[in-house]
Amino acid sequence: MAIVIKRRKGENVTAFLNRASKIINRSGVLIEARKKKFYLPKPNKRSTKLSALHRLQVQQELELKRKKGLI
């Protein structure tokens, strides 16, 4: 979504920037851009299962090392 903001006749630069920033904030363009920038898609079933299996395997290895006194 494009926003066109033109400087009014006789308007100084600071007033223009303040007005432009208000318009941009009210439009919600920045919020939408941040949502798209930090969007993380949900992992599929296969990847969640694999990560759970990996987590269990690591926990079992740690338990064995604790029993042996290595940790």
List keywords for this structure.
mainly alpha; 2 domains; 3 helices; 68% helix
What features would you describe in this structure?
The protein folds into 2 domains: 1-39, no CATH class; 42-71. 68% of the residues lie in helices and 0% in strands. It has helices spanning 13-27, 29-37, 45-68. The mean pLDDT is 93.
Helix content: 55-70%
Order of helices and strands: HHH
Q: What oligomeric state do these chains adopt?
A: single chain
Strand content: under 5%
> Roughly how many Å is the radius of gyration?
27 Å
Largest sheet: none
Overall geometry:
rod-shaped
- Output the number of helix runs: 3
What is the total domain count?
A: 2
Question: Helix and strand layout, with pairings?
Answer:
Blueprint: H1 13-27, H2 29-37, H3 45-68
Short description:
The protein is mainly α and 71 residues long. Helix content is 68%, strand content 0%. The chain has two domains: 1-39, no CATH class; 42-71.
